[in-house]
Amino acid sequence: MDLTRQILAIGFVFLLLGGAIWCLRRKGFVRAVGKPGSRRTPRRLEAAERLALTPQHSLHLIRVANRTLLVGAHPQGLGLLASLPWDPKEGGE
What we know:
Helix content is 32%, strand content 34%. It is of the alpha+beta class. The protein folds into two domains: 1-32; 40-93, no CATH class.
C-alpha cells in the first residue's frame, strides 16, 4: 500500500513537471534542445582547442565571431595572450 502511494506521488510530480514544461514551451520561455549539429544560426562562441600545461595552467583557443583568442588560464584568473583574425581554413569549418 505504501509503495503504491509513493509510486503514484512520483508519477503525479512528473506529470505536473511535464505539464509545466509544455506550458512554458508554448509561451516561448523554454526551447527544446536538439542535436548539436541542428542549429539554425552559426555559433558565435566556440572553444576550438585546449592545451593543459600543468594541473592549474592551460591555454585555450577560443573563436568569438570572426576573431581567434588565445587565453591563458591559471589559479588567479584568465589572461588574454593574443587576438587574431579568424581564418576559416585553419578553423575547420
